[in-house]
Specification:
The complex is a heterodimer of chains A (about 130) and B (about 100).
Chain A: E1 2-7, H1 16-29, E2 33-39, H2 60-71, E3 75-78, H3 79-84, H4 90-95, E4 107-110, H5 113-121, E5 124-128
Parallel strand pairs in A: 1-2, 1-5, 2-3, 3-4
Chain B: E1 3-7, H1 16-23, E2 29-32, H2 47-53, E3 58-62, H3 63-68, E4 81-83, H4 85-94, E5 97-101
Parallel strand pairs in B: 1-2, 1-5, 2-3, 3-4
The chains are: A alpha/beta (about 130), B alpha/beta (about 100).
């Protein structure tokens, strides 16, 4: 089955990012396809490359990044939500004359159309948030 | 096929479980996750509402989230099934759509 996953809450807030990661991993282990994970609102903070959680804590952005690499999953940050919160990839940083970019490998920035497409192309949409 | 509802907040914090129960069509399923697992506990002021709902809908609770909160599987309302993430995935395939109550 083909899944779209929507994450509306940032990491280390309540539990949405952890739940979404656990669900995504479980679905992949069962042989399902993750069509896309879309990060909206504070969920875009899952894509930061600057997080330094304590060493004995889980590293949520790294876990997404590693999952994307292992399973070739499409992780998309909403562009408007990302810009509001200061999450930039290299081209957005350049375009807005910012000193640095801070998006972790494995993510990309795109628009809400990508969420709609995941809803249309996927068999199921599972939402995690606050 | 029927709908799978997920509820992620405690009934002591928000009224999403109550809303979900009142709107869920008979034959659908409710999965309690995150703080929503509190709603599965027996002998609370919400237990009767949950028990009554089970005449029409099947109710599940996510075991790892119970465990994360130090809650005992033995204390859930009779008839609620404790499931893992793998079964969470299976529930999404067995129902035609997923409604997340946030």
């Amino acid at each position: 089955m083909k899944y779209g996953i929507l994450v509306n809450e940032g990491p280390y807030t309540h539990q949405a990012s952890d739940s979404a990661l656990a669900f995504t991993k479980a679905a992949l282990e069962k042989g399902h396809e993750i069509f896309r994970v879309f990060f909206y609102h504070d969920g875009v903070n899952n894509g930061t490359s600057l997080a330094i959680p304590p060493q004995d804590d889980r590293h949520i952005p790294n876990q997404w990044s590693e999952l994307a690499k292992e399973y070739n999953i499409d992780l998309v940050l909403c562009v408007a939500a990302a810009q509001r919160r200061g999450l930039l990839d290299e081209s957005e940083a350049k375009r807005n004359s910012k000193a640095a970019s801070n998006m972790i490998e494995g993510f990309r920035i795109s628009g809400l159309g990508q969420l709609i497409e995941a809803g249309i192309q996927g068999d199921r949409m599972v939402v995690f948030g606050d | 096929m029927s709908m799978l509802h997920t509820v992620n907040k405690s009934p002591f914090e928000r009224n999403t479980l109550e809303s979900c129960i009142s709107l869920a069509v008979p034959g659908s399923a409710i999965l309690l996750i995150e703080d929503g697992v509190i709603g599965a506990m027996a002998n609370t002021k919400h237990s009767e509402m949950v028990k009554a709902a089970m005449a029409n809908v099947k109710i599940y609770v996510l075991g790892p989230d119970l465990k994360a909160r130090g809650l005992n599987e033995g204390n859930v309302v009779d008839g609620i099934s404790v499931v893992g993430y793998g079964e969470f995935v299976d529930l999404t395939t067995e129902h035609s759509a997923v409604q997340s109550w946030l």
